[in-house]
Design brief:
Blueprint (H helix, E strand, L loop, with lengths): L8 E3 L2 E3 L6 E5 L6 E6 L3 H19 L3 H17 L1 H12 L3 H22 L6 E2 L6 E9 L2 E5 L7 H13 L2 E5 L5 H14 L6 E3 L5 H10 L3 E7 L2 H11 L5 E5 L4 E5 L5 H12 L10 E7 L3 H13 L2 E2 L7 E3 L5 H16 L3 E4 L3 E4 L2 E7 L2 E4 L16 E7 L2 H9 L6 E5 L3 H10 L4 E4 L18 E2 L12 E9 L1
Parallel strand pairs: 7-8, 7-10, 8-9, 10-11, 12-13, 12-21, 13-20, 14-15, 19-20, 21-22
Antiparallel strand pairs: 1-2, 3-4, 5-6, 6-24, 11-23, 16-19, 17-18
The structure holds NADP nicotinamide-adenine-dinucleotide phosphate.
Length: 483
Amino acid sequence: MTQQQAQTLYIAGEWKSAESGETFPVTDPSSGEVIGYASDGGVSETETAIAAAVDAFQAWSTTTAYQRADILSKAHRIMLERREELARLMTQEQGKPLRAARNEVTYAADFLSWFAEEAKRIGGITIPSARADQRFMTMRQPVGVVAAITPWNYPISMITRKLGPALAAGCTSVLKPASLTPLCAVATLRVFEDAGVPAGVINMITGRSASAIGTALVESKDVRKLTFTGSTAIGKRLAAQAAGTLKRVSVELGGHAPFIVFPDADPVRAAKGAALVKFLNMGQACISPNRIYVHRSIYDTFLSTLTDRVAALKIGRGDQDGVAIGPLIDDRATEKMESQVADATAKGARVLIGGERVTVEGVGGTNFYAPTVLADVTPDMEISVDETFGPIAAVTPFDDEDEVIRLANDTEYGLAAYLYTNDLSTAIRVTEQLRYGIIGVNDINPTSAAAPFGGVKSSGLGREGGDEGIDEYLDTKLVGIAV
Ligand code: NAP
């Protein structure tokens, strides 16, 4: 798409340019080259999109669950048919290696099939009354117009994780995708359009004025729910703004996952697991392990295995053969790696491998950062406190269980935590004490469209996926009937 042709606003079933005619470039993070343009929508277009969602609500909310399920199932099928083209676009726009991009498209499609089925299970209950002449029943009805704001790191699945349940529940939506990945959002909305989602049911505003678009969405009386995935700072701000109109709010925010390896665990298996999960999407994941605690008795074996595994990770453009580590999203992200490593080494951490930017032959970009292992990390280092969001494995030895649980919980975040042990008692005891929304026990991928995803504390409110995922889009109505 050229600069002049960019029409990436989707309002009332039509693709439009910004009223100003302004566009903004979208770049490939591996090369810095412009790969397309998006329309620079703002407040006025957002208000028009909200009005379109309001207009479409009555008809959409009164379709049958089976009609909505049919459309979602069709979207699921179309998304899988386009898996390769969506994955290639994602790799180009966001940078993750092609294999991971394909997996993300499958994960994104899973939400469509899961919520297609969940639509049919929206029911109420009957409740016995103390009065003989009274009956109670409940209905669950769509909350109304939903504002959905999504991040760049999982640019397709974070959209279907929100729009899937919104559609299933009978809500209409206005989406604001991340300005770094609008092309993936356009391709995702085309899936919904081609599946037959009626005009106005889903609308989208791309734009660089996130704060203005966000304010228009969260302060609108017509928008009845905010669903946001992104940083904790912005999520808190939006939740506070949404309080003015007392909207339903679910926010999926940052994380700082501990990864604990107990002395009875196999350190080699745990290190292989850590190498796999830590460097997924170059560490740019909210559930990426940020603090790896390893019992001192197996510390050296764990570190040497992890370092060997990291040495084998190939760095390059995501569509090149065998590449496991693509570019970071932008310069700011790469600078954060440099500053966290500089801070950690100044305070005594050892760099076992990596620890610097690298260049990739034949690929012009400057945001490749070598996958890194830091040993002897301590709680006073920035990396132990701030979300890294990059390819640095920070490893700390520990001596006893109480100490490691205290360290693991010593954070404002509470999204995911991992533990490795072969002792069932340890697994249950520690799982119960970790203040996190998701725990992986000897498991590096505790996520599925069929399971509730979400955090506690500053990692968010609400759950996405699973049978709880649709509750966020439904209000319960109590009906008392005198008979
Ligand atoms: P971000 O800066 O908070 O951006 C997320 C979204 O919010 C983008 O669409 C962004 O738009 C928009 N935004 C930014 N400022 C805004 C404002 N003032 N008002 C309204 N919207 C605003 O986060 P990010 O850097 O894209 O994503 C990384 C963060 O997301 C990490 O902290 C990560 O842990 C978290 N995350 C959490 C989950 C989860 O499920 N818990 C999943 C994935 C990511 P622009 O792109 O235009 O700035």
